[in-house]
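We treat protein structure as text, and this decision shapes the records that our systems exchange. This encoding replaces a full spatial description with a residue-level series of whole-number codes. Below, we set out a record of this kind in full and without editing:
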Amino acid sequence: MSRKVNKIVKLIAGILIMVPLLCQLFTFEKFSAVLTSAGVPSSLNLPIAIILVVVELTSLPFLIDMNMTKRITLTSRVTGFLSLGIMTVISFLAFANGHAAVIFGATIKNVNNVAAIFLVFMMWILLICVNLSTKKTAK
């Protein structure tokens, strides 16, 4: 993949991660209740909500191609996979419990679960493509 295409794919992946992040932050006080209704245990809903928002935020520097040190770049790459892993688990929990998609928090309600799982799947594909095609971890 050429450098220009790699930057475009990074930008698209960054935007696709930023949309749920902003939706979760707009109604963060209700996000833990939404997680509970989707099947996440009530003792874990607030820590999972906090961890999800933090790892989504820390995955963005790599995806928007910021100049960073090698450690920060690697941390950002790893947190991208961690955030998508958490979103995948939450999406499948909501799907198994028959609840609407919860990766958008309480901001966008009644999103079809299949559409949310498809969105997470597309984010996985983009993130894997970006990470496989990136030869250097820092500039």
In short: Residues 36 and 42 are 6 Å apart (CA to CA). The helical segments are 3-26, 28-37, 45-63, 70-96, 113-133. The mean pLDDT is 88.
